[in-house]
Structure formats: C-alpha cells, structure tokens
Design goal:
The chain is an alpha/beta fold. It is 20% helix and 30% strand. Helix 4 packs across helix 6. The two termini are 40 Å apart. Bound molecules: guanosine-5'-triphosphate (GTP). Guanosine-5'-triphosphate binds at residues 6-13, 23, 52, 54, 79, 82-85, 88, 109-111, 222.
C-alpha cells in the first residue's frame, strides 16, 4: 500500500525549535520523529511513502538522500505554497503519480506516533465499502480536536471540529485515514482545502465516511508537552521495553544528576547540574550547577552556569542562556 504523510506544516507551537528544524525532523530519543511514523506504517504493509512537504523541505531530502527510510521507499513532493491538509493530499497524490496504481491509500499526519493496527482499519474500510475511514481515539478532553460521532456499525454521523462543551462524543479524529481515489475528486486543486473542515463533512452528508474506534498508543506530537511526552514514554517503557535516555556519546559529569531525561549524542552535562523530565539535544551544553526541569534544550545550545530552565521552556538551536538566568515556561530566543 502507498501512504501520504503530511509533513509540510510550520509547527508554530514548537517554535523556536521548528524555526531551524521542521517538526517531523526534530529528534525523539535517537531518531527524527518522522521515522517513528514511517516504521509504524512499514510494519503494516506500507511500502511507499509520499512525503507532502512544504516548510523546510530540504531538511527531509538531506536526511534521506537515498530516498529510503525505515526500509520504505520515500517520494518527496513539495507544494508551491501551503495547501492545507486536503490540498496537500491532492497535490501529493497527483505529483507522486500515485494514481498510476490506483487503490486504497493511507494518509497520516506526520506528527502522530501510534501503534494503530492498519490491518484492522483496512478490514473495516473494505467490508463497509467506505470511501474513507478515519482512526478515532478516545480522550478525556475533546474540545481541542475534531470530534466524531458514529453509528453502531462505524458509519460517521457527525464531524465537529473543536466543539463547545459538552462535546457530542469523546472520540476524536486521530489523524490517520484510509482513502479511496474518489476522495481526490472532492478536493479543489490549487487552493487551500482542509480535510477536516471541508472534505469529511461532505462525505458525512453522502454517508460514505466510516471510522474505526481503536484505543492504542497514540500521541499527537504538536505541543512542547507532547514532544517531551513522546520521549519519556520510551524511557518509561510505554512502547515496549524501557530504553536508556542518556546516549553513550554524551559526556555527563559524575557529579551531575540526570533523572527521566534524554541526553543526546555530543551533549555535555557539567558537575552539580540537575536534568529532570527534559530533552537535551545533540551537542548542547549544560554547564556546572545549572538546572533543567521539564524543558527542551535545542542542539548546540548552552545553559550557563547556575541557570534555571524550567516548566516547559524551549531553548532554540545554538542559543546561549546566560549564567544565573531563570527561565520558566519560556521560548528563547524570544520574539518568534
Ligand atoms: P502548528 O503550527 O503548531 O499548529 O503545527 P502544524 O503546522 O504542523 O499544524 P498541524 O499540527 O495542525 O498539522 C497537522 C499535520 O498536517 C502536520 O503533520 C503538518 O505538518 C501537516 N500540515 C499542515 N498544514 C499543511 C500544509 O499546508 N501542507 C502540508 N504538506 N502539510 C501540512
């Protein structure tokens, strides 16, 4: 099966990290986020992935010059301008020649990490004769998401983007879809079109949209909190055996304390410093006596002596936090 991964967004919620690196190329433990999405699909029979690129497209091509990732053939297409989710699907479908071997294809938001069983979804899609099938996941607070109401057999009755409480259901669009080529005909070419706000509602009217309610590991890695969560889940063993967070190629002083954190290759952590619940990217330096709590230190950045970086702070690539500074829930450099 072929898949389109939507990876062209600006990732504004993860700025300043995404000013220099597109969201799906940000590292999660030891690999770019993209590789979790691609290897998940490869495990379910996807053998060609079309990357629907836009923002910082060169970073993707540079990382996979041979056109392969996680054992899968990669095809890169770049929108001339951001076309939004459905516009990107149509553009990628046509520009990559997917129509040459028509059949059901998969579409996923490239910032979703999930253990979804695509085979189960495909079974529903085929047996229902659906035009498209959406993966749904159950959440406590659906107000930030697209909420989906289905019949007992899985046919979608209602699709409500970011509902006012009380939401009609706690099942939300989880960002993975199976689509038949007919969906492409519903999308206008050459303009921004949203799959959630424009395409799915028309399919609900035509009774051709289905959904699979399937609670499994799922994370939408769009926010700083979720970006840290993706890494801590690996350390905590929430996705298989727990893994070590400190790279063998990092340099950690014996007098430093590192708890439940990722410290990537080439990073240096000095004496008396504390790193907890955080991610320290490649080549970053945490100087002696500094504290980093629940935060991300971008690659090559420095946290100066005795500085305190806490509460979801994001430090951009190569930025220098002056010694003794206190940053809480901050984005530095500022003004981005
Ligand atoms: P924020 O700016 O933080 O909201 O992030 P984002 O730009 O990634 O937006 P969002 O998380 O809502 O996007 C969902 C998925 O669609 C992500 O994987 C994006 O990369 C992708 N995406 C959003 N808009 C476009 C677009 O215009 N073109 C392409 N190719 N992908 C897009």
């Amino acid at each position: 099966m072929q898949a389109i991964l939507l990876v062209g967004g600006f990732g504004t919620r993860l700025r300043p990290l995404t000013l220099t690196t597109p969201k799906q190329m940000l590292p999660v433990l030891d690999r770019p986020m993209l590789e979790y999405a691609v290897s998940g699909l490869a495990g379910h029979g996807v053998d060609r992935v079309v990357l629907a690129l836009g923002y910082h497209d060169a970073a993707f091509r540079a990382a996979y010059p041979g056109g392969r990732c996680a054992g899968v053939e990669l095809c890169c297409v770049v929108e001339p301008e951001p076309l939004d989710t459905a516009g990107a699907i149509r553009f990628a479908y046509e520009a990559s020649g997917m129509g040459d071997s028509p059949g059901t294809f998969l579409v996923a938001n490239g910032d979703v990490i999930t253990d979804l069983d695509v085979g189960e979804m495909l079974h529903l899609h085929r047996s229902a004769g659906a035009e498209a099938t959406i993966h749904l996941i159950e959440v406590d607070d659906p107000s930030r998401y697209g909420v989906v109401v289905t019949d007992r057999d899985g046919r979608v009755r209602e699709f409500v983007e970011k509902p006012q409480p009380p939401a009609p259901s706690n099942w939300i669009n989880a960002g993975t879809y199976l689509m038949d080529p007919a969906v492409i005909g519903r999308i206008d070419g050459g303009r921004r079109v949203s799959v959630e706000r424009e395409v799915f509602p028309t399919m609900v009217e035509d009774r051709t949209l289905w959904a699979l309610c399937h609670n499994t590991y799922w994370l939408d890695v769009g926010t700083p909190k979720a970006y840290l969560q993706a890494q801590l889940d690996l350390l905590d063993g929430r996705r298989g055996p727990a893994v070590a967070g400190v790279s063998a190629e990092a340099s950690v002083d014996a007098g430093a304390l590192i708890e439940r954190s990722v410290v990537m290759a080439g990073a240096v952590v000095g004496e008396g410093s504390v790193v907890r619940g955080s991610a320290v990217h490649e080549g970053a330096v945490i100087e002696a006596g500094a504290t980093v709590l629940d935060s991300v230190v971008g690659s090559g950045a420095t946290v100066g002596r005795g500085a305190r970086v806490t509460d979801g702070t994001l430090i951009g690539e190569r930025f220098e936090v002056a010694p003794g500074t206190a940053l809480s829930d901050a984005r530095v450099p500022q003004g981005v």
